[in-house]
Design a protein that fits this description.
single chain, 140 residues, 3-stranded antiparallel sheet, two-stranded antiparallel sheet, 5 strands, Virulence RhuM family protein, Virulence_RhuM-like
Length: 140
C-alpha cells in the first residue's frame, strides 16, 4: 500500500479511540477495530462481513487486504476498507452503530443536497468563525 498514514477516531464521550490506517484513498480497519468501533463482538463483525461478500454487496478482492509487518513471526492481518466499514455500520445493532448510521446518513444527505460535504465545526475553528458564502447557480 502506498502513502500510509495513521488517523485517530475518538467518540464524543472519549470512551472509544481507534487508530486507523489511511492508505490508497481509503480508511482501513481490522475486524477487532470494527468490533470496538461498533461495540459488538468480533464474531458478530465477522458474520456481517461474510454476509456482505456472500450477498455480493462488495467484492472481497477490492475491499480487503492482508497487511503484514516486518516481523515475519507475526501473521499478516486482514484489513477492510471504508466500503466494508460503512456496510457493517448499516447492519450492526448497537448504540455506536446507530450513531454511525446517523453520522453517515447526515453526510450522504448533505452531499446529495449541496453536492459536497464539509466539517463545519473544523471550518469555524480554523477560520475564527468566519464563513464563506456559497451561491447556488441554477441552470435552466
Amino acid at each position: 500500500m502506498e502513502d500510509s498514514s495513521i488517523i485517530i477516531y475518538q467518540t464524543e464521550d472519549g470512551t472509544t479511540k481507534i487508530e486507523t490506517r489511511l492508505e490508497d484513498e481509503s480508511v482501513w480497519l481490522t475486524i477487532d477495530q470494527m468490533a470496538e468501533l461498533f461495540s459488538k463482538s468480533r464474531s458478530t463483525i465477522n458474520e456481517h462481513i461474510l454476509n456482505i461478500y456472500k450477498e455480493f454487496e462488495l467484492i472481497k478482492d477490492d475491499s480487503s487486504r492482508k497487511i503484514g509487518i516486518s516481523d515475519f513471526s507475526t501473521k499478516p492481518t486482514n484489513y477492510y476498507n471504508l466500503d466494508v466499514i460503512i456496510s457493517v455500520g448499516y447492519r450492526v445493532k448497537s448504540l455506536q452503530g446507530t450513531k454511525f448510521r446517523q453520522w453517515a446518513t447526515a453526510r450522504l444527505k448533505e452531499y446529495i443536497v449541496k453536492g459536497f460535504t464539509m466539517n463545519d465545526e473544523l471550518l469555524k475553528q480554523a477560520g475564527g468563525g468566519n464563513y464563506f458564502v456559497f451561491e447556488k447557480i441554477i441552470c435552466a
